Amino acid sequence: MKNYNLLTKQELQNEYSLVKSEYEKYKAQGLKLDLSRGKPNSDQLDISLPLLAESRPREKCFSVSGFDCRNYGVLDGIPEMKKLFADMLGIKEEYIAVGGNSSLQLMYDALARAMLFGVVGSERPWCKEEGLKWICVTPGYDRHFKITETLGFELLSVPMTSDGPDMDMVEQLVCDPKVKGIWCVPKYSNPTGNTYSDETVRRLAKMECAAPDFRIMWDNAYAVHDLGEEGDKLLNIFDEAEKYGTLDRIFYFTSTSKITFPGAGVAMMAASPKNLKQILTYMGVQTIGYDKLNQLRHTSYFSDGEAVHKHMMLLAELIGEKFDITLSALDELDGLGIAEWTKPRGGYFVSLNVMPGCAKRVFELMKEAGVTLTSVGATFPYGIDPRDENLRIAPTYPTNDELKVATAILTLAVRLAALEKLLK
Amino acid sequence: MKNYNLLTKQELQNEYSLVKSEYEKYKAQGLKLDLSRGKPNSDQLDISLPLLAESRPREKCFSVSGFDCRNYGVLDGIPEMKKLFADMLGIKEEYIAVGGNSSLQLMYDALARAMLFGVVGSERPWCKEEGLKWICVTPGYDRHFKITETLGFELLSVPMTSDGPDMDMVEQLVCDPKVKGIWCVPKYSNPTGNTYSDETVRRLAKMECAAPDFRIMWDNAYAVHDLGEEGDKLLNIFDEAEKYGTLDRIFYFTSTSKITFPGAGVAMMAASPKNLKQILTYMGVQTIGYDKLNQLRHTSYFSDGEAVHKHMMLLAELIGEKFDITLSALDELDGLGIAEWTKPRGGYFVSLNVMPGCAKRVFELMKEAGVTLTSVGATFPYGIDPRDENLRIAPTYPTNDELKVATAILTLAVRLAALEKLLK
């Protein structure tokens, strides 16, 4: 197809009529589809049903440490769960504290503690300082941004590149002692799906931060979420930070939410021994311990990191089909000069940039045709996309048939919005 | 036996020799027993094993609302879990938000939010105020006190009476606007085991508080933990607060920790609709939702409040024996004039007051004989019992045989410590 930017007005009008009539056919169907939710559908969850199949008599309620997992105690998690996470992620067991079902909660709690008590290296609780700022890589994860916005930080946008955050900009921003940290989804980033380059990881570990208590919130949510055997490789940031003496800078998170069950997985936080000691002191005031039976459920099912990988390959078959459907549909836009999108090798999202100024219009057109997209701007601080161009496509939740229809409509809406703009 | 305070020096010396020799016999056995831990033993946990016996195929993973409980979402809990809590406690479903496995965490989080953002009625976040104070009923629950101590409150002690906190003193303290709240375990209080009288509950609901954002942390941890059909009755504080227009004052908590599994139960918070709206706004920044599969496990097993009651009567048989053993042993101290103790109709603890100045010595004597008691002072703010007289006896964790030996040694240690003091 021909680049829209090179068409004559008449050609544009012809194309508009054509696309519009196709779009109207879908609209007339009164559909109700959803491309907005970064959550698995029930078929994917069924893969993990064996975790719930097993009856658990008394003798299966004990940890390798001999502890009765039904009872109180073991604040930082049972040893076999730490071992599993360590094996999955290639990090040290002694850095790990196992949490409840939500890594988001561990992240919020980590920053709430920083506000109330400070972190290792802080001169005072962060709530006693004024004008604090936080770096947000954009487009990024709305729930990250919301945490730091709610805690009162000024959010600073740094653009995502194919190698990760624009590091020149990050290195400049961290010269300001008011800048206390940065949100990172380093592998299969939400929503762009790309992975930080080795050089980016190294520069994050190495950079000079004016704040003595700067923190990298390293949300490795998609650590093992490859769509095939050939996944992206992410450098181990702990190894790099150790080299540069910045180990305390790293707050590392992940969970099994998108491995087993989003609502009933196991989350974890990893940090340097010094950090962990401070964290567990306060965590021990907050709770006696997280759900160890659910940890046991996971370690009974997954013997090691390799078992997790095999399980992820089963999920990849299902999710891979959805990515394929989405990317095939987007191929319709190839060469039109009105959109760019990512082709991730893992994770949960495809990031679609439409013609600047057109994202909201695409959202509207989709809504009118009965397809819900993630709100435009959700991937930016304060919910505002300054160029009104980014759409986060979440292909996992609909069925394949629904997805085929929804993405077909999407390409029509993207074309229609561009044509409207060009014809203005 | 004769009151020690009426004995001659010679009689005291004879008694000392007698008790000392009995104590030494136990000491020689090299025992290792524990009366310190307010946690159930494995036999009690076995009563709840049916919750873990059931395999959960896909069709059993859905809430009555049609929601897939394996997935993300449903921040405030599935409807059937709210209904179960409402039925158990006689409170309104619409006041309830279901949490994770820990009510302590819900309490910490509630106060951490108050510090960071304030509560309904606050003029500013509490962390922006100086010199805040908090009322602690003593003896009380060490983990409560630790939360407010850690958050920077000055802790004010108010003595527990047989009717609950000394309300004259509470009513006076709340005239200070710096006093932001009070910790309450209103039924089978930890550690005294007594229940607040109707009048106490009414006065708490009715009292004039200078702080516009005063909060009663109503930890109804032992709401259904009667040791027999004839349990204590606690007035519904929400009903009272409604009468006096102080509904926003109440933050209500409970959990199934000591109903099913301490490490894997379900916790909840209840509050007025106005409070709940503010709470859920921030909770929704902290997490996408708590573990709904564990909620389903509980509601699959407990059809209603009556089912919970029947289950508690099974537990009461086991725990009742332990209370009987403990109280029979303490009968040995009857009439000696050296100790007083509570005889609770439910809960988890017996509170023992020994001769003033003797509690630490009893702790030492027990330790030397191989029995761990809860640290002296743990039931008081900052861990200091000003009269050095209170001991919290936790009878549930040891086996019956262990408990018989441990409580026999306890009565000897109490007598020995008193005799040492009287002979000085």
Task: Give a short overview.
Two copies of one chain form a homodimer. Chain A has 424 residues and is of the alpha/beta class.
Which features does this protein show?
homodimer; alpha/beta; Aspartate Aminotransferase, domain 2; eight-stranded mixed beta sheet; three-stranded antiparallel beta sheet; 13 strands; 13% strand; globular
User: Into how many domains do the coordinates of chain A divide?
Assistant: 2
Provide the CATH architecture of the largest domain in chain A. 3-Layer(aba) Sandwich
Rg over C-alpha atoms of chain A, rounded to the nearest angstrom: 23 Å
CATH homology-level superfamily of the largest domain in chain A:
Type I PLP-dependent aspartate aminotransferase-like (Major domain)
| Helix and strand pattern of chain A | HEHHHEHEHEEHEHEHEEHHHEEHEEH
Number of strands of chain A: 13
Q: Which CATH C-level class of the largest domain in chain A is it? A: Alpha Beta
Describe the structure.
The structure is a homodimer of 424-residue chains. Chain A folds into 2 domains: 156 residues, Alpha-Beta Complex (Aspartate Aminotransferase, domain 1); 240 residues, Type I PLP-dependent aspartate aminotransferase-like (Major domain) (Aspartate Aminotransferase, domain 2, 3-Layer(aba) Sandwich), CATH 3.40.640.10. In chain A, helix 12 packs across helix 14 and helix 13 packs across helix 14. The model of chain A has no long low-confidence stretch (mean pLDDT 97). Helix content of chain A is 41%, strand content 13%. An 8-stranded mixed beta sheet of chain A has the order 2-9-8-7-6-3-4-5, with helices on both faces. The first copy, chain A, has 424 residues and is α/β, with parallel strands linked by helices. At the A-B interface, helix 2, helix 5, helix 6, helix 10 and helix 11 of A face helix 2, helix 5, helix 6, helix 10 and helix 11 of B.
